[in-house]
Write a structure and sequence with these properties.
CATH topology of the largest domain: Jelly Rolls
Helix content: 25-40%
Strand order of the largest sheet: 3-4-5-17-13-20-11-10-6
Keywords: Dioxygenase, Endoplasmic reticulum, Glycoprotein, Iron, Metal-binding, Oxidoreductase, Signal, TPR repeat, Vitamin C
Family: Belongs to the P4HA family.
Organism: Seriola lalandi dorsalis
CATH superfamily of the largest domain: q2cbj1_9rhob like domain
Catalytic activity: L-prolyl-[collagen] + 2-oxoglutarate + O2 = trans-4-hydroxy-L-prolyl-[collagen] + succinate + CO2
Distance between the termini: 79 Å
Number of strands: 20
Subunit structure: Heterotetramer of two alpha-3 chains and two beta chains (the beta chain is the multi-functional PDI).
Shape: globular
Length: 460
């Protein structure tokens, strides 16, 4: 702008040329074309469910990784340790959130009666809206008044009646004739007079059915695959593995034994870059919301957030090649129906799978529909890397394995006597940064009679 000619043309453009464009006939035609173009593309754009899911994903990351909302709003991923904020991940590009962004997250929590999260996010929304002087932008869904209204009621529900009153009174400055808010003010004042001293229950995180293992699960996720004490076990080792298979003699696989109980192994460089891209590409068209066993049926659930697709051998030659490679490494019969079709899974914003067993724990489980017994083993291929989060946490075994791109992880779900191994309780930690893709191969009991024999000891 030091050039006066450039400065003059910029001033002229902003003062008159831009207005001439905005109010021209061409602008009206373009606006109509834009609207009709939007209607054509609307079906492919994110739905309300996607937006709410993304908001829930942010709250899940906040909880599992103990992230500070005030830091997230500034585009930082920080948690407090010894009273000081520490960065657990430094993004290349930092994207701050607006007051309207925070309002939407808080509103999703509010509508679920989750006031623990709504208070934290709406506090930030109010702060940011106040910072703009309460001005409304065309792209915003919420306003300062909306944020104050939701925040006041959220504080009331958590027992902070005095602050709910203060916020409601502030709201009346913007909307003095709002009958509902006037009634709330009167109600809060009566409560404060009757209560001595005023009751403040504080913020409490909502409970979950997995509360027994939640603390361990989140601690293992926060370590992001680093357990120095666990890996100091001298019985754990790395080697070049052939499984006595002629096909692996010239090119053995790099095997890393992660755990002995349960027996968990990582096979490095199991799949090539080209193969991972092929698997993701052919799975892309069939991706749908992942389901879990619900009695004899299957249904979606909040404790499993991902999309998945099933690939048959006929889908692409790569599927058959992977089956053959898995069979060589494990010595198991993985052909359908002794092995399920390859399941490709993609985890989006905060995508996760809370603690669960891969094997069936109920006789009515859909796992038995193949009539080939229970899932004896799991073989999971990592099709992508992630920058942070997404590790596989084994809850009772007390360790987690990070995502290793192009590697595969294998473990036995059942003891040799056919009983489920409780130490295989595991979880897919939420993806903090990145796009996590895996491919699961579940191998069943039947068909393995000569590959994985029973023991003479019925207790094994």
């Amino acid at each position: 702008m030091a050039n006066p000619l450039v400065a003059f043309t910029l001033i002229k453009r902003l003062h008159s040329e831009w207005l001439n464009v905005v109010y021209s006939n061409e602008a009206l035609e373009n606006a109509q074309a834009l609207r009709s173009g939007y209607e054509d593309k609307e079906a492919d754009l994110p739905k309300l469910e996607d937006l709410q899911g993304a908001a829930k994903g942010l709250m899940r990351l906040q909880d599992v990784y103990a992230l500070q909302v005030t830091s997230l709003v500034r585009g930082r991923f920080q948690r407090v340790s010894n009273g000081k904020p520490i960065d657990i991940y430094m993004p290349t590009v930092s994207v701050p959130l607006s007051g309207d962004d925070c309002f939407l997250v808080g509103k999703v929590a509010y509508e679920q009666e989750d006031y623990y999260h709504s208070v934290q996010w709406l506090e930030e929304s109010v702060r940011l809206f106040r910072g703009t002087g309460g001005e409304w932008s065309p792209e915003n869904e919420g306003t300062l008044e909306d944020a104050l209204d939701h925040l006041a009621f959220s504080h009331f529900k958590t027992g902070n009646v005095s602050y709910a009153l203060s916020l409601s009174q502030e709201l009346l400055h913007y909307d003095p004739m709002n009958g509902r808010v006037l009634q709330n003010v009167e109600k809060y004042e009566k409560l404060l007079v009757a209560a001595s001293p005023p009751r403040v229950s504080g913020l409490r995180r909502p409970t979950t059915k997995h509360v027994r293992t939640r603390d361990t699960y989140e601690r293992l996720c926060q370590t992001q695959g680093s357990q120095p004490m666990h890996f100091e076990n001298p019985r754990l080792f790395c080697d070049y593995f052939t499984n006595d298979n002629p096909g692996l003699l010239l090119l053995p696989v790099r095997r890393e034994v992660l755990s002995l109980q349960p027996y968990v192994v990582l096979y490095h460089n199991f799949i090539t870059d080209t193969e991972t891209e092929d698997v993701k590409r052919i799975a892309q068209q069939g991706l749908t919301r992942s389901v879990v066993a619900a009695g004899e049926k299957q249904a979606t659930a909040d404790y499993r957030i991902s999309k998945s697709a099933w690939l048959k051998d006929s889908a692409h030659s790569i599927v058959g090649k992977l089956d053959q490679r898995i069979s060589m490494l494990t010595g198991l019969n993985v052909k359908h129906p002794y092995g399920e079709y390859l399941q490709v899974v993609n985890y989006g914003i905060g995508g996760h799978y809370e603690p669960h067993f891969d094997h069936a724990t109920s006789p009515s489980s859909p796992v038995f529909k193949l009539k080939t017994g229970n899932r004896v083993a799991t073989f999971m291929i990592y099709l992508s890397s992630v920058e942070a989060g997404g590790s596989t946490a084994f809850i009772y075994a007390n360790f987690s394995a990070p995502v290793v791109e192009k590697a595969a992880i294998f473990w036995w779900n059942l003891h040799r006597n056919g009983q489920g191994d409780v130490d295989t309780l595991h979880a897919g930690c939420p993806v903090l940064i990145g796009d996590k893709w895996v491919a699961n191969k579940w191998i069943h009991e039947y068909g393995q009679e000569f590959q994985h024999r029973c023991s003479l000891n019925p207790e094994e």
